[in-house]
């Protein structure tokens, strides 16, 4: 066995791959190194070792600290295990630092790209750690570094930038990597930039549902006032286009450049990190109207809360034998009053029957609700929808409208927990959606279809709970209605694992009997491991969820301690103390008038050693949880094995079920004994 360890100059373990080569470089074997140590079985012989790092922080090298195979040290293995001295791996020249949001939060997974300052080509990259720290190694003598990432709370794209707060490769500051690490300090990424404006007709009327795009696919639709806001725009210059998918207006580039122009370039829009660029407006010309060549299918799109369905895709599909082979053969948009039409279905080759749908969308603007896809005949899917033929007809659609759920996820420990979530399940238990969390812990979802839901909340290192401060079985349902928000659906999560109902010892504390533990009910159980300990005072006398009571335990009182290990934390709860351990009592009774004569035995005790106090109850029924309903009717004392219980009033004629609660003295055990008696009068 050839063994060794890989460390950096500070003694920290290094991971990568060790390859064993023959003296002339022929491959022998290789092993991935995790945790910094390796054990490689080899035959007797002479070898050279090559290391390839798992991280760009470190350089490849040969054993020991050699640059090539020719100069590498020879390792000899002869008849015994060989353990090499620690192999120190040198870092490449590197750059290091920390990536944070503008308000100081780490950006885990931020992408750090390193470019050769001389050639402008990318030469290395890495992702930031959970705390936002990074270290990227490179052999380039001078580099420029670009940073990008997402806000860890909102998942919004942050504005990419070059070191040091520069917008382009050309203007970025150059950095010289060093073996110790050229420290770039804290790199703060602000919110992405934005471009906004208004789209109108040439007469100045706002155009609803015009589509505005900047470079790299950053787009937005105009609202009812013709306004748009493209967020998350990256730094630099972008070309902005204005189009009308509904087909009523002619598209163009900013500033008033036709989309088809080959002679005039669009005017670029420059965005600095976090900059809000406004006033990028357009006035679109009306598109010349065309005369339909007949109309096979027309109608309107509206929603169930009374609005016109503007700019929704209406699609016509084929009807093959297998619905999975259906394809879209025609598509249009509903216009700005919700109307649509198709004028050529009779010319679709080989098809005479069709299915039609209006494609739903998520909420288009802040505060709007999602619309659901609806099929002909007001059906929810292909299979149940109405089939139409290519003949002139009117077909109207009524789109279902979602409702919403909103609230907040916080921590009992204060503030917003790490990685919070709120999820919704329908009455079948199926996952129906998630809330969109903001940095302050508030959330909302506006794409929840009408119905009843349970809402669960969770976060890293916190106990999951269900609204309203409940476990899964006791969750309160949230009713969602079309176009309405169910508000205040919130939770303050606990980091502590706690028993909601105290564990209990089941069984009688009598010698020879077996006691068991009911673990109780906890705020988290699904993935937990439960363990059990039995204690006499503070001393653990046994483990496990059951205990056989032995004579050695006479006179002791026991408790059971339950530990719930949920992984991220654990909690404990202790049962009530049992009566002191004793021998099992046996009772015989005789009822006369308002007195009950009792004979009590507790083997192996002699009669003169049998003492106890007794409380008598009559069973009056059963509770919802199965427990007996008891009414106290008398009490008494047993001495030397016999005694009398005096009743408050005589028992009436007929059958009675009595419970005698025995509290034993000395070595007599305690517990409830049930006797059935019949009164004849």
TrEMBL record:
<protein>
    <submittedName>
        <fullName>Carboxypeptidase regulatory-like domain-containing protein</fullName>
    </submittedName>
</protein>
<dbReference type="InterPro" id="IPR013784">
    <property type="entry name" value="Carb-bd-like_fold"/>
</dbReference>
<dbReference type="Pfam" id="PF13620">
    <property type="entry name" value="CarboxypepD_reg"/>
</dbReference>
<dbReference type="InterPro" id="IPR008969">
    <property type="entry name" value="CarboxyPept-like_regulatory"/>
</dbReference>
């Amino acid at each position: 066995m050839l063994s060794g360890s890989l460390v950096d100059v500070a003694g920290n373990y290094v991971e990568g791959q060790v390859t064993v080569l023959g003296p002339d470089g022929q491959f022998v074997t290789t092993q991935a190194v995790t945790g910094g140590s390796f054990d490689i079985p080899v035959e007797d012989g002479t070898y050279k070792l090559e290391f390839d790092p798992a991280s760009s922080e470190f350089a490849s090298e040969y054993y020991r600290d050699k640059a090539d195979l020719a100069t590498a040290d020879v390792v000899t293995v002869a008849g015994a295990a060989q353990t090499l001295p620690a192999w120190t791996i040198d870092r490449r020249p590197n750059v290091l630092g920390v990536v944070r949001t503008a308000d100081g939060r780490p950006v885990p997974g931020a992408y750090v790209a390193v470019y050769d300052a001389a050639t402008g080509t990318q030469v290395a990259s890495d992702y930031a750690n959970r705390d936002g720290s990074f270290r990227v190694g490179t052999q380039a003598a001078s580099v420029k570094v670009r940073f990008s990432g997402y806000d860890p709370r909102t998942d919004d794209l942050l504005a990419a930038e070059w070191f040091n707060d520069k917008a382009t490769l050309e203007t970025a500051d150059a950095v010289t990597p060093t073996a110790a690490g050229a420290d770039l300090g804290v790199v703060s990424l602000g919110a992405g930039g934005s471009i906004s404006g208004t789209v109108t007709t040439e007469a100045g009327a706002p155009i609803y549902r015009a589509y505005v795009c900047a470079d790299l696919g950053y787009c937005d639709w105009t609202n009812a006032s013709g306004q748009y806001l493209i967020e998350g725009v990256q730094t630099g210059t972008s070309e902005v286009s204005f189009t009308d998918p509904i087909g009523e207006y002619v598209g163009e580039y900013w500033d008033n450049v036709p989309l088809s122009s080959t002679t005039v370039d669009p005017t670029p829009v420059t965005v600095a990190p976090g900059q809000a660029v406004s006033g990028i407006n357009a006035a679109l010309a009306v598109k010349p109207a065309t005369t339909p060549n007949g109309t096979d299918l027309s109608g309107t799109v509206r929603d169930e809360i009374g609005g016109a369905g503007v700019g929704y895709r209406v699609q016509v599909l084929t009807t093959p034998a297998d619905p999975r082979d259906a394809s879209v053969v025609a598509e249009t948009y509903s216009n700005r009053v919700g109307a649509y039409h198709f004028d050529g279905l009779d010319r679709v080759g080989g098809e005479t029957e069709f299915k039609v749908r209006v494609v739903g969308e998520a909420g288009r603007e802040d505060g709007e609700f999602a619309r659901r896809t609806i099929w002909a005949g007001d059906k929810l899917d292909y299979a149940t929808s109405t089939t139409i033929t290519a003949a002139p007809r009117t077909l109207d659609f009524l789109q279902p409208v979602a409702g919403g759920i909103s609230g907040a996820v916080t921590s009992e420990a204060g503030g917003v927990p790490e990685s919070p979530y709120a999820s919704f399940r329908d009455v079948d238990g199926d996952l129906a959606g998630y809330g969109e969390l903001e940095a302050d812990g508030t959330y909302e979802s506006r794409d929840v279809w009408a119905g009843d839901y349970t809402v669960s909340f969770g976060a890293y290192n916190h106990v999951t709970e269900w609204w309203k401060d409940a476990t899964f079985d006791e969750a309160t349902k949230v009713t969602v209605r079309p176009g309405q928000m169910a508000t205040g659906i919130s939770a303050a999560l606990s980091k502590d694992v706690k028993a909601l109902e105290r564990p209990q010892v089941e069984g009688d504390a009598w010698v020879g009997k077996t006691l068991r533990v009911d673990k109780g009910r906890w705020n988290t159980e699904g993935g937990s491991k439960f363990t059990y300990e039995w204690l006499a005072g503070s001393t653990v006398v046994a483990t496990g969820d059951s205990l056989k009571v032995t004579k050695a335990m006479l006179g002791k009182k026991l408790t059971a301690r339950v530990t719930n290990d949920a992984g991220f934390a654990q909690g404990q709860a202790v049962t009530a103390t049992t009566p002191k351990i004793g021998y099992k009592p046996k009772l015989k009774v005789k009822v006369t008038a308002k007195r009950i004569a009792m004979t009590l035995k507790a083997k192996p005790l002699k009669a003169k050693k049998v003492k106890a106090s007794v409380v008598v109850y009559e069973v009056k029924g059963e509770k919802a949880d199965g427990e007996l309903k008891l009414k106290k009717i008398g009490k008494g004392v047993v001495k030397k094995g016999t005694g009398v219980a005096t009743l408050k009033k005589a028992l009436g004629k007929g059958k009675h079920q009595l419970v005698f609660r025995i509290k034993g003295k000395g070595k007599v055990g305690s517990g409830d004994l049930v006797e059935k008696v019949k009164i004849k009068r």
